[in-house]
Design brief:
heterodimer, A: 372 residues, mainly alpha, 3 strands, B: mainly alpha, 17 helices, 4 strands
């Protein structure tokens, strides 16, 4: 309990931790919401491709301008991301190369191209090195409040656009052809929502880096999908999960040295995904297993009840008692008959007679007749 | 060229060839992004094996890494099979998680050993020749031997199971019906990709493995319809990029792997634009040609309809086309000129007359519809 109290204390009063947590939360909200659409449109890996593709933009804009401020670098990243994603769309649409391969090409070639210029920059010794490591893994600890405000501003605009075009994006995600039939410019909407995802990715690069940014697009959406069938709930929940993972990742990384924030955020969101896959009502694996087991028991109980009814029919009254052994002969798994009889007795559908015999109660007879 | 330079190029070419072979099947089976996932999670295998073995040079590292590659594929399949997660999302879930674990383990427990994440992700081919080994009295770089073995394994696998791979790739249903297990072929192929990725990441880094796996294969896919030819073309493009990338890197004094990826991209772009039958330029020109052909056919059909009728005098005037087929005046003139050039229509006074060729064209078109 003590550590938890300390953590909250730190969250409120430690400048670095507070900034990192806020940044991670902003990122989680924006990437979570827009990632939900990407997942529904089966473009989960687009986030991965785009975040890698940002590298040449960051490097080249630094070479050209010599400025290292986050906004300028973000602009470069956004340009490269946007160009990359348009190329992916173009290659997929105009050639027989499928989306997976065009993503692989753009991801790796852009990244390699950026890497080439980055090493050129480092060896030619021009000013400070843009820091590949921070691009790959993010440097959450270096986030300033000003950075978080920039992230929140761009992210907020992206979310606003998402809300304005909500109906159109919903149409795009679920029935593109119908939307085209209604006269909506589906191709334009496709590009618009992809550009919003570019914004989400670009603002996240500084915090969690390339490799882990892809997880922030996919994972919250997958987790949220398990809990609901409604788009608005899913997008909201996805944002919440993203923010939750962001803040908890930041908190955990403050516990010990040598724990980088990015990977911890990814592990937090992965834990949320595993929990959701297991326990979400109606879809979760554990939930479904329990439901299946319950239905199987119910079915078995009903069969035992009906067996007793059939046997009693051979006698003068329907409440004629029979031994458990007699019921067992009528079942594939005799060993389970006892537990069914116990359950039925608890529901007052059968009652024990003369020690080891069982008879239907009037309620049991009525229930058995329902199943015939 | 110094011996070191030749060795670097040899290693680069071996890596590129070894990557390009399984890449063909990944591209055809629409699983290109699997190479991205595997090449990232291989890091976890290396870290875990390193904890057990305690040294980085051990060949066990390759086995451990290949095992994580297979683990990655199995986890993705497992998630996919629950029906709760689509395949693309499953890939996007599994590899960042495993990769994060690896990064955390390295930053927390591995200190003072040359196992930094940069070298795994980016590789440094320029140093490969310094890691030398004695084999039967021959003094050769370690990577040459490793990559040669991996290349031979890849070639052998593809040669031995060519028929099965081909069948399972193009008609999985038929393959299953004939008794070739698609799952077995899938996992075998993924193991191959994992082993290749491990061997290659040492030289070029994991992210650029993707460039060498996917890009040459995709470029080859735009050049041919034959699997054999595609395999050969893919390897050739891979080797070409490797050598070209080396010289580009030398010229710029930049990272070799990055330059190799850049060259694969340039070659892909060239193929994308200029491929004889699937290139964008060919497609665009074909579209333009089809537009004119269609207009010409319409013109000849129109003329044929009214040929020999009293109103033919009126119907066959150029300015009448504007009214009748609703062409813009300038466009109508262009179509007529195109048709004249092709010899399907000729002018006589203000009238258009069909040539024999034009009449045949119109009649053909009418029969076809």
């Amino acid at each position: 309990m003590n550590t938890i109290a300390e953590l909250f204390n730190a969250l409120l009063f430690d400048y670095t931790l507070r900034t990192v947590a806020m940044g991670a939360a902003v990122l989680g909200i924006v990437a979570g919401a827009l990632g939900a659409f990407a997942m529904l449109r089966r473009q989960s890996l687009l986030g991965d491709a785009m975040s890698h593709a940002a590298l040449p933009g960051v490097v080249l804009i630094f070479i050209l301008t010599g400025v290292k401020s986050p906004i300028v670098l973000m602009l470069g990243a956004a340009i490269a991301c946007g160009a990359g994603v348009l190329l992916i769309i173009a290659i997929t649409r105009h050639t027989r190369i499928k989306e997976d391969a065009s993503m692989g090409i753009i991801l790796s070639v852009f990244f390699g191209f950026g890497l080439m210029w980055l090493t050129w920059l480092q060896r030619s010794g021009t000013a400070g090195q843009a820091g590949l490591n921070s691009f790959l893994f993010g440097q959450a600890a270096t986030l300033l409040v000003a950075d978080v405000i920039v992230m929140a501003a761009f992210g907020g605009v992206a979310l606003l656009v998402m809300v304005i075009f909500w109906k159109e994006f919903k149409l795009l995600s679920f029935d593109r052809d119908f939307g085209a039939g209604l006269g909506y410019p589906m191709q334009g909407l496709d590009i618009l929502i992809t550009m919003l995802l570019v914004v989400a990715i670009v603002i996240g690069l500084q915090a969690v880096g390339v490799v882990l940014m892809s997880a922030m697009v996919v994972a919250p959406a997958v987790a949220a999908r398990q809990w609901t069938n409604r788009l608005e709930h899913m997008v909201a929940l996805s944002s919440v999960f993203g923010a939750l993972a962001g803040v908890s990742g930041a908190l955990i990384s403050s516990l010990a040295r040598g724990l980088s924030t990015g990977p911890l955020i990814v592990l937090c969101i992965s834990a949320i995904v595993v929990f959701s896959l297991a326990f979400a009502p109606n879809r979760g694996l554990v939930w479904n297993a329990i439901q299946r087991r319950r239905r199987r028991h119910q079915f078995r109980d009903d069969r035992v009840l009906v067996s007793l009814y059939h046997m009693a029919q051979q006698h003068d009254t329907l409440s004629h008692p029979h031994s458990a052994r007699a019921v067992q002969t009528m079942h594939m798994r005799p060993a389970e008959v006892h537990s069914s009889l116990q359950t039925l007795a608890r529901r007052n559908l059968v009652e024990p007679v003369n020690g080891n015999q069982w008879a239907l109660t009037p309620a049991g007879i009525a229930e058995a007749e329902k199943h015939l | 060229m110094s011996i070191t330079q030749i060795e670097i190029q040899l290693i680069a070419a071996l890596v590129a060839a070894a990557c390009a072979l399984p890449g063909v099947f990944l591209v055809l089976r629409q699983m290109a992004m699997m190479s991205d996932a595997i090449s990232h999670t291989v890091l976890l295998g290396i870290v875990l094996t390193f904890f057990v073995v305690g040294e980085l040079g051990s060949p066990l590292l390759i086995l451990g890494a290949a095992a994580t590659g297979v683990l990655t594929v199995s986890l993705i399949e497992l998630l996919n099979r629950t029906g709760l997660v689509k395949q693309d999302a499953a890939i996007g879930l599994v590899f960042p998680a495993l990769f994060s674990i690896a990064v955390l383990l390295i930053s927390r427990f591995v200190r003072g050993v040359h196992l930094d994440v940069d070298s795994v992700l980016l590789g440094e081919l320029a140093f490969a020749p310094f890691d030398r080994f004695q084999y039967f009295g021959l003094d050769v770089p370690h990577a040459t031997v490793t990559m040669s073995i991996i290349l031979v394994i890849n070639v052998l696998f593809i040669v031995l199971f060519y028929k099965e791979l081909k069948l399972a790739t193009f008609d999985p249903g038929l393959a299953a019906a004939l008794g070739f297990s698609p799952a077995l072929i899938h996992y075998a192929l993924m193991t191959l990709v994992s082993v290749t990725a491990v061997g290659a990441f040492d030289a070029v880094g994991s992210i650029l493995v993707v460039a060498l796996v996917v890009t040459p294969a995709a470029a080859a896919y735009l050049l041919t319809d034959k699997l054999r030819v595609m395999l050969g073309t893919s390897v050739a493009i891979g080797i070409g990029s490797a050598i070209g990338g080396y010289w580009l890197a030398r010229a710029l004094d930049a990272n070799i792997a990055g330059s190799m990826a850049t060259v694969t991209g340039v070659i892909f772009l060239g193929v994308l634009l200029f491929s004889p039958h699937r290139g964008l330029i060919y497609i665009a020109r074909r579209r333009v040609r089809q537009k004119w052909e269609f207009a010409q056919t319409m013109l000849t059909i129109h003329l044929l309809q009214h040929e020999g009728e009293p109103e033919a005098v009126l119907e066959s005037r150029v300015d009448h086309l504007v009214e009748h087929i609703r062409w813009q005046p300038g466009y109508a003139e262009q179509v007529v000129r195109y048709a004249e050039r092709k010899g399907t229509v000729r002018r006589q006074g203000g009238r258009l007359l069909l040539t024999d060729q034009g009449r045949n064209l119109a009649q053909d078109a009418l029969v076809r519809t």
